[in-house]
Amino acid sequence: MNRIWQKEISLERLNAMVPGTMLEAAQIQFSEFGDDYLSATMPITDAVRQPMGLLHGGASAALAETVGSIAGFFACPEGCHILGTEIIANHLKAMHSGSVVATATPIRLGGLLQLWQINISNQADPNQLVCSARHSVIVRHK
């Protein structure tokens, strides 16, 4: 796939968006991007565990929506922004500790609608898929 980014993208710019947001509370950090993907990591801490000690499904969904939405923003033209409309997350593997990495890749990048696939894996073993999500966003032109 060709380079999808329509705005200037860098890890410094991505991570500058974290302070003062939910991303900071969950310790989400953008870790990598390529021509057609964006990745972020999240450690499994008490802040993202459910009472039984497992990674909270809502935290996985929030991570997926974060990476999909930020990818969508950088994949739309200057002067545009995006609004999330739907997140569907399938939780596939329980985790108690460690870190996860979420990687967003586009399924469709239309002028008005984008659809993103976000796979969340165990950072220590990328073959262990923890959550598979799809995120729809609307592109708003100013």
From TrEMBL:
SUPFAM superfamilies registered for this protein in UniProt: Thioesterase/thiol ester dehydrase-isomerase (SSF54637)
Key words of the record: Hydrolase
InterPro entries xref list: HotDog_dom_sf, PAAI_dom, Thioestr_dom
Signal peptide: none
Coiled-coil spans in chain: none
CDD domains for the chain: PaaI_thioesterase (cd03443)
Domain Thioesterase residue range list: 52-124
Highest taxon in the source lineage: Bacteria
NCBIfam families linked to this entry: unchar_dom_1
Family label: Belongs to the thioesterase PaaI family.
Protein name as annotated: Hotdog fold thioesterase
